[in-house]
Write a structure and sequence with these properties.
The complex is a heterodimer. Chain A is an alpha/beta fold. Chain A has helices spanning 3-18, 20-29, 101-105, 113-121, 143-161; strands at residues 51-56, 60-62, 80-83, 91-93, 127-128, 131-134, 166-170. Chain B is α/β, with parallel strands linked by helices. The chains are: A alpha/beta, B alpha/beta.
Chain lengths: 172, 86
Amino acid sequence: MGKIQDLKNAMLVQLFKHLPWLAERWAKGHRFVEGQGIPWTPLGKPLRESCIAMVTTAGVHLKSQPPFNMEDPDGDATFRAFPADADKSDLTITHKYYDHSAADRDINVVLPIDRLRELQKEGFIGRIAPTLYSFMGHIDGPHLKTLMEETAPEVAERLLREGAEAVVLTPA
Amino acid sequence: MGLIQRVIELRRIPTIGITLQQEITMKVKPPRALFLRYPFGHPLGEAFHVRQQRTILIDTLRGLETIQEPGTILTPGYVWRRHAFD
């Protein structure tokens, strides 16, 4: 992506951060994939007995993992998986479509791993699923098909295999 | 994000997502959501604001138990930087 495009993007990120109504107006004018029907799976048992997983679209990953592709204007439909007990200092964020300065200081702003661990210790939830999954939320064009038909189903399959009984998703 | 959520729910795992964009969520139609009028990059609120993050996460988790109607969007209405989380 060119420098002018990068500059325009950085400006929009700051505008949307400080003027949320502008982001709402942008959303109204933007075309999104509209859902047909609403999928529904009831919670099988109380939270205090359930294994909870988290999935974020905030572009979080281990520093040792390859970053998300920021050069493609349609985004990156791949995901990163890392252990739920990963050290926070090993995590980083690759995402230029939102201001992650707060999340860089405290990852809990986008991925509340400390809060979830506390709730597990207190018995509010049963267990934490072993793996956290992370996407980069800015996905458009041909990558939407990849997301819907390949990467998102793969994450769903892995979550099921790992025993996740409910999932909390956090955006950027 | 709602699209990924729908895929996971279809795989028979109940889901709930935090959203900062109610308009988009109403179009994408995930099964359960919690909406906050917070800036992008702050779904759990502010850095190191433990009570705020905790409250939002608890509200979100509880939605898994309390929401009975598919497509429900919870709106706790915590005003950005004004709500006192005690």
